[in-house]
From TrEMBL:
Residues 199-213 form the Bacterial type II secretion system protein E domain. This is PilT/PilU family type 4a pilus ATPase. It comes from the Bacteria. The lineage of its organism: Bacteria, Pseudomonadati, Verrucomicrobiota, Opitutia, Opitutales. InterPro entries: P-loop_NTPase, PilT/PilU, T2SS/T4SS_dom, T4SS_GSP_E_ATPase.
Length: 362
């Protein structure tokens, strides 16, 4: 093992033992780790630019080396012996090397372990076809929630599941379902080639790591329309923002056709944030979930997106609810404080009214 790899492995071991989710390296500075959402410095010698650069040079897969050399940034997976797997992003800033590593959990979580409300997520997971989108900011636990949904399917349904990931975040063991997990750069040269091939691989369920562009979304729609269930993630904070992002894939003159396609194929959104827990440190997930029932589909078809938030706030359906409803539940259950709930609420004034017993009626 080279000296720079040994330095990194010791750092990664320390981070994992302390429950860090991310490790941030800036050349010529000590490392930082993210604990419970907060960035903390590590008591260690600075990591020099030579050490950081040597780590990337040694471990970047050969297929990505030209990207690192020409673009100055690269994503790849790294496995530290006896420690675990990490998603690595190497990049340059001010002419120096920086690296961010995210710990990839080896054990696939379930709903209870993540603290999620399972009823709505199980109902979505049972869909025969369509598109399910798990949304949130970077580090909000999107991948873990999606993995928990696939874990439930694996334990309960007989499905052929093909995943396209960059890199693979959770390794599934076949139970009732059969998994084919394809990692960009290792199993297939590019995301575009994997997307083009997936429908020929006879899947029941397709996981697309990220809904990144129009071509990806159109492939998802095509798969949904031909009887497949598609899981993917998006960087969007709320259901309303997620809906807006979808339609940004299409120019104005194609909006009517897009509404028709999306209303027919969408099965729902799961939006997520992580809120500091009241006791024991750590964070707990809070969700905004939209189940695309007949009412929602009609609103999409008619372009009446502004009515969807009111539906989430006022609906008595346990399968669709707003962030405020879920934050209210967590406050009442003693999982999070009122102050944190108001801080993470997209509409703190309305949440404050809810906590005083004032609610919008359906």
């Amino acid at each position: 093992m080279t000296p720079h790899t040994e330095i990194f492995n010791e750092l990664l071991k320390l981070a994992v033992e302390n429950g860090a989710s991310d490790i941030v390296i800036k050349a010529n500075k000590p490392a930082y780790v993210r604990l419970g959402g907060r960035l903390k410095p590590v008591d260690m010698d600075p990591i020099t630019n030579d050490i950081a650069g040597a780590f990337v040079e040694e471990h970047v897969p050969e297929v990505f080396r030209s990207r690192w050399d020409t673009e100055g940034q690269v994503d790849f997976a790294y496995a530290a012996d006896g420690v675990g797997r990490f998603r690595v992003n190497g990049f340059h800033q001010r002419g120096l090397v920086s690296i961010v590593l995210r710990h990839i959990k080896s054990r696939v979580p379930d709903f209870e372990q993540l603290g999620l409300q399972s009823e709505a997520l199980i109902r979505m997971s049972q869909a025969k076809d369509g598109i399910l989108l798990v949304c949130g900011a970077t580090g909000s636990g999107k991948s873990s929630t999606m993995a928990a949904m696939l874990n439930w399917i694996n334990q309960n349904l007989e499905k052929h599941i093909v995943t396209i990931e960059d890199p693979i975040e959770y390794t599934f063991q076949d139970e009732k379902s059969v998994f084919q997990q394809r990692e960009i750069g290792l199993d297939v040269p590019s995301f575009e080639l994997a997307i083009k091939a997936v429908l020929r691989q006879n899947p029941d369920i397709i996981l697309i790591g990220e809904m990144r562009d129009r071509e990806t979304f159109e492939t998802a729609i095509s798969a949904a329309e031909t009887g497949h269930l598609v899981f993917s993630t998006m960087h969007a904070a709320t259901v309303a923002q997620s809906m807006t992002r979808l339609f940004e894939f299409f120019p104005p003159e194609e909006q009517v056709q897009a509404r028709r396609q999306i209303s027919g194929s969408l099965r729902g959104f799961v939006c997520q944030k992580l809120v500091p827990a009241l006791e024991g440190g750590g964070r707990v997930p809070t969700n905004e979930i939209l189940n695309a029932d007949a009412v929602v589909k009609n609103l999409i078809l008619e372009g009446q997106f502004e009515k969807i938030q009111g539906l989430l706030e006022g609906s008595a359906d346990s399968h669709s609810f707003s962030f405020n409803k879920d934050i209210y539940r967590l406050i009442k259950a003693g999982k999070i404080s009122k102050a944190e709930g108001l801080r993470y609420s997209p509409n703190p004034q309305a949440l404050d009214m809810n906590l005083k017993g004032i609610f919008i009626k359906a």
